[in-house]
Amino acid sequence: MSGIDMKSQGSDDSDYNNDTDDNMEDEDIYDGYYDAEIGDDEFEKPTEVKDPEAYDYRLLEVEDVERLLNEKIETLCTSLKLSPSLAKVLLYQHNWDTSTIQEKHTKDPNKLLIEAKVMPKTKPLRDMVISRNFSCPVCMCLCPSETVHGLACGHRFCQPCWEQYFQMQLSQGLSSGIECMGNECHVLATEDFVLDNLGKPEMRDKYSRFAFQDYVESHLELRFCPGPNCQVIVRAENPKAKRVICGKCKTSFCFKCGIEYHAPTDCSVIKKWLTKCADDSETANYISAHTKDCPKCHVCIEKNGGCNHLQCVKCKHDFCWMCLGDWKNHGSEYYECSRYKENPNIANESAHAQAREALKKYLFYFERYENHAKSLRLEEETLDKIKTRIEEKVMNNTGTWIDWQYLLDAADLLKKCRYTLQFTYPYAYYLEKGSRKTLFEYQQAQLEAEVENLSWKVERAEITDRGDLENQMDVAEKRRLTLVRDFVTE
């Protein structure tokens, strides 16, 4: 990519503004993955299409969530006359759905407690009377009765053995799911029982932290931000596989599954895809480091920009990085190299041939998936170059930041479109043949073509007319919205 040299442009006719984010809790996120400060209004002006990825959620601190959980606990304690520790167990095991718990309690309270494993199915056979010379079944020591504790199952052990047992369970990451020490006994230890038998303050704090994490993860409306060392908790009253952006660390993720946002691919499908990619890690390493030869002069080329439209520096031949075809044949109407052409007679071939065809199909989709991921990283470098050139222009009094804002908007939109395009390939890989796949591949090809056109123009900002660039932005975003609207599942 050549150096970026921009001519000063007025900003009074710009449709793209960078509005500041005054209220992360109430905004409909549009540019969620890359910039939580950009709302959807600025892109709705040229497209007049409601963003299908907009999602209503709130960003909470730990104290806010503790209040939310305590309200649920208090409600259950009051209505069912339960202890807070017992209420926590029931809420944890029923995903904090109080209505379900109350309904089950009305039908059969004993069955509710048995299912929650806080009460044994049958009465314990052990003698509940503790003699003065009680012998602990674990350490075989004679213990005074005041140091002997037990759960509803009747299994009793001395306090030092309970404490050692709980410390061992905590070291393995368990808290809410700790069961009785008795042989094959699955009765759960309630929070008050665990804390009463943990003497060290640091262990009590550790248990409380682990239990709180369990409570949040079991609550269908809550999700920890997966960002490193981030304490923000997201609440969405209508849980869906939608994009969420942390206002603190700017991490973007899917609310439903907690991994990176992956529309239009479903949560279950993207997990299968990522597992398959991990299993074929050597293939991924090869493709990531792969170089290609110019199809005309055969000089070795390494792609150093996000655009798949490459021009050989030696012979000036324009070709597609993915299929190595002449770029003139990659018209905007249909992007053939984004479609995998399956062998129609593969069912009649040998098992070896079928396995070879399956690998070929996977490599086709993985290479394009990985190529867009790599392009995203390379386009970050392009964005940095644009920012540097803007700073130089501003310092030389050649326009202001507002004058050049449209270039940053173009780079941000390019990343968003390419990110969506990247995750169309796992979706297409698992999509069954039929009219729906045909429609999807057509829209995918349309988006592919417009993203490459936008990438080409962003990388050549110095010779790209502002009006032409903004028009390309509008077309690319319309293609993206159409695909997302038609294929993202609720």
What's this, in brief?
This is RBR-type E3 ubiquitin transferase. With 490 residues, the chain is mostly helical.
> Which CATH class of the largest domain is shown?
Mainly Alpha
**How many strands, which pairing sense, and closed or not: the largest β-sheet?**
3 strands, antiparallel
Mean pLDDT: 81
Shape: elongated
* Rg estimate, integer Å: 30 Å
Family: Belongs to the RBR family. Ariadne subfamily.
GO molecular function: ubiquitin protein ligase activity; zinc ion binding
Domain RING-type: 132-341, 136-180, 297-337
EC number: 2.3.2.31
Structure characterization notes:
- 47% of the residues lie in helices and 7% in strands.
- With 490 residues, the protein is mainly alpha-helical.
- The protein folds into three domains: 24-57 and 240-261, no CATH class; 62-218, Zinc/RING finger domain, C3HC4 (zinc finger) (Herpes Virus-1, 2-Layer Sandwich); 267-487, Four Helix Bundle (Hemerythrin (Met), subunit A) (Up-down Bundle).
- The longest helix has 45 residues, at 351-395.
- Mean pLDDT is 81; it is low at 1-48 and 125-130.
- Its main location: nucleus.
- Keywords: Metal-binding, Nucleus, Repeat, Transferase, Ubl conjugation pathway, Zinc, Zinc-finger.
- This is RBR-type E3 ubiquitin transferase.
- It catalyses: [E2 ubiquitin-conjugating enzyme]-S-ubiquitinyl-L-cysteine + [acceptor protein]-L-lysine = [E2 ubiquitin-conjugating enzyme]-L-cysteine + [acceptor protein]-N(6)-ubiquitinyl-L-lysine.
